[in-house]
Amino acid sequence: MATVSRVLNRSGPVSEGMMRRVRKAASDLGYHRIERTLPPGRRRPVIGVLIPSITNPVFAASLSGIQNRMRVSGHGVLIAQSDYDPAREADAVDYLLTEKPTGLILTVCDPLKSQSTLPAFLPPTVLLNNLPTSRFPAAVTTDNRLAGHEITMHLIEHGHRQILFVSGRFESSDRARLRYEGYCDAMAASSLPVLNALQIPFVTGYDELDLGQAMRTHRPTAIIASNDLLALGVISALRREGLNVPDDVSVTGFDGIAIGRLVHPPLTTIEMADASMGATAASLLLDIAENSATPRHLRIGHKLNAGGTVRRINQAS
C-alpha cells in the first residue's frame, strides 16, 4: 500500500519498473485517484506543458495539437513558459506540479542539463522537440541535424559557397545547435569554410539584428536562420543594409510557419509538423500514464519547401 501511495501521489522514490507495474494495475482495475484537495470547480484531470515561448507560432501550433488530443481524453492543459531561459525552467515546472498533473510535456533549452536541475519527483514526462535522455527516455522529435544538413545542401546545390548561420543562442535551444551542426556537416563534407554561428537572444534579438559587421567580414551569398521568425528578421536587417533578397543574398529558415508563405517572395524553409508533433506527444504521454506503456522516442518527418528567397548563382560567384 505504501508503494502504491508513493506512485499514485508522486510522494517518494520508486523504481521505474515498480512504477510501471503499479500504473498498469491501476489501469487494469479502472482505478482513478480522486483529488480531494482540488480547487472548487476543478472537475477533470490536467497535464502540464512547458514551452519556451507562447508567442512563437511553432509552439502555438504544438499547443493546439496537444489541446485537441487532450480534449478528447477529458484532460485540461496547463501552460508555463521559460522565455528560453534555462534558469526559469525548474520554477515553471514547480508551478505545474502544484496542480498535480497526470503528466508533463516539456520543451526545455538543453535536456542534458535540465534533467539534473528539474525537480526530483515528476509524473510521467514526454520531451517535445528535445532528444531523449537517460532520465527522460520518452520524446517526440524531428531530426534537426539532418534538417540543417539538407537546407545547407540546398544552398550549395544552388552555387553558394560562403554561407552564414544566424541563430538564437545555443544554450537556449538545443534545436538551434543541432541545426547548426547539420550546417557544419554539410559544409565540411563539401570542403567549404565553416563559419562560426552569429548568435543573438531569442526573445529580444530579432528586431535589433545588425548584420553590417558580419556582412563585411564574411561576405556571405546566403544566410541560414535557425527559425523562420529569425529569417524574417534577417531579411529586414539586410534591407537596412541596402541589400535585396534573393538578388543580393539568399535567406532560408526552419519551421514552415504560415507567415513565411505570406511574405514576398515566400520563404525557403524546412517545414516541421508542429501540430502533429504536439498531438503525438500528448498521445504518448497518455499511453505511458494510463496504460503503463514503455517510454519511447518517436521521430516525425520534415520536408524542404523551396520558396523564392534562394537564387541560383554561378559557381565562380
TrEMBL record:
It comes from the Bacteria. One of its GO terms (molecular function) is transcription cis-regulatory region binding. Keywords: DNA-binding, Transcription, Transcription regulation. The keyword Disulfide bond does not apply. It comes from Ciceribacter naphthalenivorans. This is LacI family transcriptional regulator. Residues 1-33 form the HTH lacI-type domain.
